[in-house]
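Weekly puzzle thread! Below is a chain. First person to post its structure in token form gets bragging rights.
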Amino acid sequence: MKRFGQRVAAGLTERNAELPHDVSERLRFAREQALARAARARAARTSVSTARPATVQMGATLALGGGPRGAGKDNGLWPKLVSALPLLALVAGLLLMQRGQVHEQIVAAAEVDTALLSDNLPPSAFSDPGFAEFLRDGQE
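Winning reply:
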């Protein structure tokens, strides 16, 4: 990337002699402004990048319950348990969803059984394979 920039700069410098004076002055002024902005951005990026790791490290350590004493040590079982909480929450949610689906299936079967037992039907209707489907469609 640096080589490309140098080639572009060399090409522009070669053609600089052909430009009128007012255009070359505007380009010079714009170049100075761009260099000043780049220097400010580099300085800001450097100051932010040097200050950020210490802040983030301290924040992460304090959030996990370590504090300044345990900054470089293994804090034992507590951080491991805290990091396992999202996995436990996921497993608990999946188990609750499965339990809800099983409950819905039981309720649907109970409704069909109730409809079958409470209606006056001939015994041949119970052996018809499409009869349960008919009952489900009628209840919705």
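Puzzle host: Confirmed. Bonus trivia for everyone else. The chain has a mean pLDDT of 77.
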